[in-house]
Amino acid sequence: ANLSGNTAIIDLSNSFISSVSDVNIASNMIYSIVNTLTELTEVNTVKFLIDGKETNFANCDFSLKEPFARK
């Protein structure tokens, strides 16, 4: 993970998202990470990259292209 301003940038492998086909599961996975990292005072948002690229979950309509804030 890297920090750019107040945004934590997390680069995950494609295997993290490749088997997820339900938008609710995708959301729960992402926000569990976001809510944990935003507990740190220097982190307000979390940006996810998959193998170094902005992308979506392959099997469901859930975008990872924008940073996520705590829910």
Describe the main β-sheet briefly.
Answer: 4 strands, mixed
Distance between the termini: 20 Å
| Strand elements, count | 4
Low-confidence stretches: none
Figure out the total of helices: 1
Q: Helix fraction?
A: 10-25%
Q: How does the helix and strand content classify structurally?
A: alpha+beta
Determine Rg (CA atoms, Å). 12 Å
Could you give the topology of this structure?
Elements: E1 2-4, E2 7-12, H1 23-37, E3 45-50, E4 68-69
Parallel strand pairs: 2-3
Antiparallel strand pairs: 1-2, 3-4
Q: What does this protein look like?
A:
The protein is built from one helix and four strands. The protein has 71 residues and is an alpha+beta fold.
